[in-house]
Amino acid sequence: MRRLYAVDEVAAGLGLHVGQKAADATALVPELDYADADPEGDLAALAALSDWCVRYSPAVAVDAPDGLLLDIAGVSHLWGGEGPMLDDLLDRLAANGIPARGAIADTAGAAWALARYTADRTIAPPGGQRALLEPLPIGALRLDEKSAAQLPRLGLTRIARLTALPRMQLARRFGLNVLRRLDQAMGEGDEALSFRRPASPWFDRLAFAEPISQLEDFVRAAGDIAALLCKRLETEGKGARRFELTFHRLDGKAFPARVGLSIPGRDPGRLVRLLAPKLETIDPGFGVEVVTLEAQGVESLSARQQRLDAATEVAAEEGLAAMVDRLTNRLGEARVWRDIPYPSHAPERAATRLGAMETPAPAAANAPPTPPWSPDTPRPLRLFAQPEPLEVMAKLPDDPPVRFTWRGRSHKVRRAEGPERVAEEWWRKAFEDASPDRVRDYYRVEDDAGARFWIFRAGLYGDPAIPPRWWLHGLFS
Amino acid sequence: MARLEAIRARIAALEAGTRTPSQVLPFGHEAIDRCLAGGGLPLGRWHELTGEGMELETGAVTAGFAALMARPLAARGSVVWVMRRDDLYAPGLAFLGFPAERLIQVCARDQAEALAVLEDALATAGVAAVIGEVEPVDLTAGRRLQLACEKRGSTGLIIHRRPYGGGSRSARAPSGSAAATRWKITSAPAAPDGQWGIGAARWTVELERSRGGRPGAWLLEEWKDDAPHPLRMVTDLADRDLATEEVRAAG
User: Fold this and answer.
1) How many domains does one find in chain A?
2) Which end of chain A is more exposed for a tag (fewer CB within 10 A), N or C?
3) A346 in a domain, yes or no?
């Protein structure tokens, strides 16, 4: 049976309501214009709207199906107060044809209730949500369906009735959920909101009287806003590892440009140099009206700063760090790295990647330290990601082949060294797949031209089920 | 003989032009060092390394030789390795005595990007040497690399390596390259000493071009112990003086 999923104001005025049978509704209003419900589309639209709201605060949480929660602590001064900020937000939404109601309160629960059950644009004074909430109906508490239906039947129609009851009784009769929702609205209980990103005080915005669309204006705006945020970072003796500069277009689309630093920094000039090449890809459309900059991974810089002045050696590392940043931001994080030892006997796992300027994470206290690679262990200079199969001649057990063919070319083995036996890391496999026979015997061989290969035999001779095979795993210099 | 030396010095001065005389890294063997302008591998310049056959694709021998050449430089600053295909195996570098844990590795997407990264790294303070695996460098790009080297005095070692899969634009390097030296390295059978194991690696090393110096060819061997230079000469394969004397004797 088809029912109404949502109605607009005009339809509500005609007596239609959510949950009404579609047939009844069309009987009441024959010219009813309706479309199929699309909850996923609604959610996607809400997510897009939450992206747009990042211009007001970096902490935006989607409150499905029809709400957005913004944490505006420490941000409202940028608009000259909470009132002007709320007006700006709702006016812009209205101008874009999105009907919306808004409220500001200490808690997410109170703001939710005020936005839906009181006059539009209600602002609860700090600590003053109780007086505003008490006259509201029970539905303003975001209760589950069962409680929302049960409470009014018992005469508990207003929140004031509920707060008048002893807490013990409430919890026992209606379950903890009701009490929790009540506390969350009144500011006595915590509520975890899943923000699209955590609230950050390291956030700044620039709004333009006239939209900008020229590249040089973008660069200048980036410089201005970077100077603003970096000045604040400097005052507090901090630096950040990541910066996200977002250009908010007139039509509500947002274009972020991100840069990362290998050593936390706060030099606006350096930031702009890293950002500048990314600004070219921003499509200005009809113009950009707001630019926001957020710093992430903020940490103290003062300790590092002192060391910097001390020696010229560290200054040289600054040059290196700056280069690593340039390369990382141009090529991507995965393309600039340092290899460090990893405690594994399997050759392909003996090295692990680390950011070029990072120091390895300290190991657990009881873990043995990872030994460095030994200069006495023969290892090839090139290791193939996938060992390449070899055709071998003169298979003698426990001896390297006399001749092998690799990539269609035959090599005569002149000298060989080995074997070095490497057992399979059975603890990384399913129990049935592991077997003590799964070993690799590595040999270093030299062909008659002097080329050196790292070959191995997988498996042991004598097992008829799995005949051993020969592979080339790497090349020596 | 003295006149010959004087002419050589004048030619070297002409070739060096107005550039400031650069530092050198001697091999510690007279036969090699006298083929190089200034008596050693010129620093603050860039050098070409090439192989032949399958080596142009795998680049193992050239990479090992470059790592050994750069090993003395690693003590003076950072080393950056720029590649197109990330199959360099750090434990293998450690096997050559190279401080692999401090090596910064960069994987570029294409030739143009690799050259840009090379230039950037060469011009960075604190970088002593940059090793790059690229296709042959044309004259303009080579000049740019040279300018980047001169900025901070860092040394470039450019390995010719064909990217897997893709075709090579040219097998040979364009003539008239801006490199200070050009080396061709091929693997050679190890010493026939009959001992257990396969012995220290050997290479046939041809110095094909040397600005302000002259070409040469030697059989070099890896020197494992704490030596002044990680490469040791086994035999001189193309001693000019020796060759001319033989010709005279034959004539």
Assistant:
1) 3
2) N
3) no
Task: Suggest the residue from B104, B127, B161, B224 to mutate for an interface test with chain A (most A CBs closer than 10 A).
Answer: B104
Could you tell me the CATH number of the domain that includes residue A325?
3.30.1490.100
d(Cα A325, Cα A304) in Å, to the nearest integer? 17
Asked, for residue A335, whether it belongs to a domain, the answer is no
Predicted TM-score (pTM) of this structure: 0.69
What residue type is A345 in one-letter code? H
**Could you read off the pLDDT of A317-336 as tens digits, one per residue?**
468 888 888 898 888 889 99
Question: Domain range spanning residue A304?
Answer: 203-329
Vertex A451, ends A445 and A454: CA angle to 5°?
Answer: 40
Give the burial class of A121: count Cβ atoms within 10 A of its Cβ; 0-12 exposed, 13-18 middle, 19 or more buried. Answer: middle
- Distance from the B91 Cα atom to the nearest Cα atom in chain A, whole angstroms: 6
Summarised one tens digit per residue, pLDDT across range A358-374 is: 877 766 667 777 888 88
Shortest distance between the Cα of B102 and any Cα of chain A, in A, equals 7
Judge if A319 and A403 occupy the same domain: no
User: Tokens for A440?
Assistant: 């690799």
Distance CA A83, CA A64 (A): 25
- Same domain for A311 and A393? no
CATH code for the domain defined by B23-250:
3.40.50.300
In angstroms, the CA B96 to CA B99 distance is 9
